[in-house]
Amino acid sequence: MPSKHADVVVVGGGHNGLVAAAYLAKAGKKILLLERLDYFGGAATSIEAFPGIKARLSRYSYLVSLLPKQVIGDLGLEIELAPRRYSSYTPNPLGTGGLLIDRNDQARTKQSFESVGSQDCENWNSFYSRTTELAQKLFPSVTAPLKKRSEVIQELGELAEFIERPIGELVEENFQSDLVRGVVLTDALIGTFAPNVDDSMQASKCFLYHVIGGETGDWNIPVGGMGAVTASMRKAAERFGAELISNAEVTSLTEDGKVTYQLNGETHEVEAKYILANLARPELARLLGKTSPRAEGAQVKVNMLLKRLPKLKEQIDPVAAFGGTFHINENYSQLQTAFEQASRGEIPNPLPCEIYCHSLTDSSILSPELKAAGVQTLTVFALHTPHPLVNESNNDEMRQKFENAIIDSLNSVLDEDIRTLLLEDANGNPCIETKTTKDLEDALRLPGGNIFHEPLSWPFAEDSESLATPAERWGVSSGYSNIFFCGSSAKRGGAVSGIAGHNAAMAVLES
Ligand SMILES: Cc1cc2nc3c(=O)[nH]c(=O)nc-3n(C[C@H](O)[C@H](O)[C@H](O)COP(=O)(O)OP(=O)(O)OC[C@H]3O[C@@H](n4cnc5c(N)ncnc54)[C@H](O)[C@@H]3O)c2cc1C
């Protein structure tokens, strides 16, 4: 059996694995990175999803907020992130008008609150100026060793309520309008199946990571798509001398650093002092011949290509409506009802969705012909569709049912049927693809399609947690002394951020 040695083997070439490999190779370590798929980037990738159509869609993840400037600078990444002028648009599902948050026009935004009968404009401004303060205090710490909870709580002062109280309670206390409350709460429910007031605090953690990125909480569009972000990370890893192998499926690991993998039908072995696992915890356990409980996901993702943007029922320029995050059927009360319906095993009706159009801000992902024809991309993220709704035998049927529910939800605010606007691919099929949690598990090994690999953790350690080892201090401990997490399963993982990759590399260098 062919066998090699490396200082560090990185198992998995998601964007975090690439970042870890780049940092360690830059520090002079001999790195081998093994990726089972035929591309690098995992859930951060672009793809031509429809035969014969030259549009490179960010197939899974699509917006960037949490990638620190420090990582971009340290690795010399060439990544362009375009801001969105419009933060969000939300048609009033129970009446008329819609709420447009226009970041460049306060007066228009104020008027828009009034148009949906909400007095929450001032509340909105003061709530989000507090989350900006929270971001400024917390974000610089994500690429540093973990602090303890009590220290962070003390530093945050009265902002500590974002950590100590369920986000749903804060939303109810700070806002009056059902619609506005819903818009705020959605950041707590992306990929997180929870009731509006969630005592488990998972929704609060999800909210926190949605508002602290880059010390602003802004979500930007990666120019060239998510694949461009990953391509830059890959180039950096290679430039610093890491060896990256795709189509290399790791089949087993040992705690003392032996990694067995399959490549071109042959079994290979490599030994290393450290293994970095860019894997979900249950996947790591499986490769070690053990088991670990898994936490499943709760969303459906849809990608579409449209001949043009659809007309809306409300009088609003579609460029503004689709330019930011377009919330559909995400009023606060609708979110709670959807959670309850899904908990009973039903597909929520209406299905809460959010939509965004990449090509409005960055048309570089389209061929010149598609651009000239006015084609637009549309990405939908549907909430509250938990993994137990799908299984091995019903996945095809459920995918279609979810797709129908998403189309119905979307059509409820449109002046025309979105189906009539779908572009056709080279085979005459409509350009729409729908990914259930099962599809994500099959394609990416995300446990139950969990977009974060596992439940999110706070960006600090609990007071009772040990911070004795470098892996513990950097939040990348896997419980095995020479195996560290370098992906979403690490503390402060769970986004396109490279934070876990950076932190795992720092732990290796300090060990
Ligand atoms: C639908 C969806 C939408 C999302 N939207 C956003 C968003 O807009 N913004 C955002 O910031 N985040 C988003 N996320 C989350 C974000 O994409 C992930 O947190 C991030 O990509 C995780 O990166 P990673 O490198 O840690 O892991 P992954 O991307 O999961 O990569 C792990 C890699 O390991 C490989 N691997 C697994 N097992 C093996 C094995 N045995 N041998 C070799 N290789 C193996 C996998 O093939 C994969 O390439 C989204 C996720 C999903 C799924």
TrEMBL record:
Gene Ontology cellular component terms for the protein in this record: cytosol
Q: Record's InterPro entries?
A: FAD/NAD-bd_sf
Q: What is this protein called?
A: Unannotated protein
Q: Which lineage is the organism of this entry classified under, starting from the top rank?
A: unclassified sequences, metagenomes, ecological metagenomes
